[in-house]
Design goal:
8 strands; 41% helix
Length: 246
């Protein structure tokens, strides 16, 4: 699959949800320029496009290399993004309280020591009526991935391990099911909306299946959007996405 097509498919469901939040927040506040914090935003895959939409974006990330790449990407796009080096657990010390209309917490909770505490710190950044976007790896998808590649013992470990890990060499400290994710969000004092599945099919398909087909990417994106809320299909998605409010 071409790189542009990959990005379109991988991010389509999340971007659709974010656009809905941003449009609603702008109507509610009368402000076109919203304040967004991207916790663990890395090299700016979401932050830079959000800045290009005219929003004020702050990225907090522990990696100086990632923040340097973020600043280069922002410069190339002709936008400004505020970069802060720090951990998600220290958000309360790094970003003003109740100063954000939207906080992104994407691919962060699997790494922090206490996911509920990290989301609690995120909650403190939210203005009234604001939202947090949470994106995490799905434990069920990891079981399927290990099984279809013939790693049956590892698939069994992922299935039975409370943290959803396949072994000591697993690069992810933690994976989530929809139920465990919702429980953590609620524990943090947030109200979760519906769980969306992200990349239900995209990671299962060979790239040649859509390469050279002009409408293939659009068709796959449409399928991913529909599958994202299907009660059964979202359970096997590579990632789980939830919007939550204070």
């Amino acid at each position: 699959m071409a790189q542009v097509g990959q990005r379109a498919v991988r991010d389509a469901v999340v971007w659709e949800a974010l656009r809905g939040v941003l449009d609603g927040r702008s109507r509610e506040t009368g402000r076109d320029r919203l304040d967004i914090v991207d916790a663990g935003g890395g090299t700016g895959g979401f932050a830079v496009p959000l800045a290009r939409l005219g929003h004020a974006v702050t990225v907090v990330d522990p990696s100086p290399d990632s923040l340097a790449a973020l600043e280069r990407r922002a410069a190339e796009a002709g936008v400004s993004v505020h970069a802060i080096q720090g951990d998600a657990g220290d958000l309360a010390e790094l970003v003003p309280a109740e100063g954000a209309d939207l906080v992104l917490c994407h691919n962060v909770l699997e790494y922090v020591e206490d996911p509920a505490a990290a989301l609690g710190a995120v909650r403190g950044l939210l203005r009234e009526g604001a939202a947090v976007s949470v994106l995490v790896p799905n434990q069920v998808a990891a079981v399927i991935n290990r099984a279809v590649t013939g790693r049956f013992d590892e698939a069994l470990r992922v299935l039975s391990d409370p943290a959803g890990r396949w072994g000591e060499r697993d690069p992810l400290p933690r994976r989530f099911t929809a139920d465990t994710l919702l429980a953590i969000i609620t524990e943090a004092g947030l109200r979760p909306a519906e769980v969306h599945g992200v990349r239900v099919f995209a990671d299962l398909l060979p790239s040649g299946l859509v390469d050279g087909e002009p409408r293939a990417t659009d068709s796959l994106v449409a399928l991913e959007r529909s599958a994202a809320t299907h009660p059964a299909l979202r359970q096997i998605a590579a990632q789980l996405h939830v919007l939550a409010t204070p």
